[in-house]
């Protein structure tokens, strides 16, 4: 008698059913056009199916959420998944932005977009994907001719009369990050997007992601902008400076970014001698090999600049961040171990604002216009505006707000961002700001003065303003919410030894500002403290500002520093 047939083997466990994130990852693989992120994701999925808990957790980190599109566009680490920067996410963003532009274009007209990119990993790939997909969606797409600074893209939106602009950059983020900044033309005048446009674009992106696979999105030929666009930016920016009366011995670093070529051509057009270069950092390099973090505010980022400046006997150091929309400045300082001191963003903003006020005061029409800064920047700008009879506007943090101040002649924020040429660029611009600062240094040198002496002149005329900052990095974002809630529920009566005069909760909208998760603490001695969550990092940030206007300049500096120390100690206790 024949043996009975063997029973069928039980089916293998369905890993997709066990954890839906595996199905989500496999679906993502089906539309990912990037071989690198495909391979990375396949390995993760295979490991997760085999029971690797770490791989499964990694998949959840990548797919449980989606990288949110907001007023800062998109920014994140380059990797596979909906919560990372990659070609799938960028393609969906491009198609969503295109739908937004087409829906809002006047009847019978074709909207347009200009796309720029810097030297970061995948920047050119993301930019060409964007241009091709925009063109496929019925938008006239113009790609800048090569990797260029963010300010050139912001300029091109207005110069070309485009409906929108996209800049692929993560500015000074870590090397493996990239991002996607969106500007709008027309009545927005080339400024970055703000609410409600950000939400409308985000809704279109989500609709595309839900309804279409990336390979199904149509592509078409796009235009490449001529070099004349870059030359037009250079000529317009060179006009920021007066012809130099004397030259200033300067060192320049691009921090491995894209700033140098455009900066060089702008300096030449304005008549300035070229600076001594930090050779190891001058060429674009997406690995940023000489810095731990490509941000001139970070410790160690400017060490090579200081070394080069010591060798050259430089009077000034100018640094751009990797996409050249920010400017850092350092001056000789015998009391520093490096021989140089990097000026704070508030110091640079104060004297550039003073320069703008002087120019306005000497115009044929008399002093008109607006000085502006973000709410977390020094109150010094308000004092300058008052002294010159100019308008002053405080905005929420970010140049999307600063650039929209009516009648703007100069705007800045303390995080090394300056807008010195609002008729040309409606965004922070580290190249025009560098030229304006170099022009100021040249004028001062011709009159026998240094930047350090000019800062003292500022303190003598307007009072000495001192600023400080506390940044608390957290692993649990809920901790930031708990601190903000505690401060709201139990408002402090003192910060350190100084009595609290009033507290503004900006979450309700104050003084015409849109609602924002910020507390503004005003103290009885005129000092001010701002508390807010960071918009880009898992940090709680506290900004401290005080002013001393009595006594000599050294006495004012000492008094302001003592108050700042008191505020620092007090706030660290309150947010502990």
UniProtKB/TrEMBL annotation:
The chain positions of domain Alpha-D-phosphohexomutase alpha/beta/alpha read: 67-207, 247-330, 345-448
InterPro entries found in the cross-reference section: A-D-PHexomutase_a/b/a-I (IPR005844), A-D-PHexomutase_a/b/a-I/II/III (IPR016055), A-D-PHexomutase_a/b/a-II (IPR005845), A-D-PHexomutase_a/b/a-III (IPR005846), A-D-PHexomutase_C (IPR005843), A-D-PHexomutase_C_sf (IPR036900), A-D-PHexomutase_CS (IPR016066)
- CDD domains documented for this protein: PGM2
Keyword Iron annotated: no
One Gene Ontology term of the biological-process aspect is: carbohydrate metabolic process
What GO molecular functions are on record for this protein? magnesium ion binding; phosphopentomutase activity
Q: Which PROSITE patterns match?
A: PGM_PMM
Sorted UniProt keywords: Isomerase, Magnesium, Metal-binding, Phosphoprotein
The record, for SUPFAM superfamilies, names: Phosphoglucomutase, C-terminal domain, Phosphoglucomutase, first 3 domains
Cofactor field: Mg(2+)
What residue stretches are annotated with the Alpha-D-phosphohexomutase C-terminal domain?
471-545
- One Pfam short name: PGM_PMM_I
**Top-level lineage group:** Bacteria
Give the family per the record: Belongs to the phosphohexose mutase family.
PANTHER family from the entry?
PHOSPHOGLUCOMUTASE 2B-RELATED (PTHR45745:SF1), PHOSPHOMANNOMUTASE 45A (PTHR45745)
- What this protein is called in its record is Phospho-sugar mutase
Q: Which organism is it from?
A: Cryobacterium tagatosivorans
Q: Which taxonomic lineage is given here?
A: Bacteria, Bacillati, Actinomycetota, Actinomycetes, Micrococcales
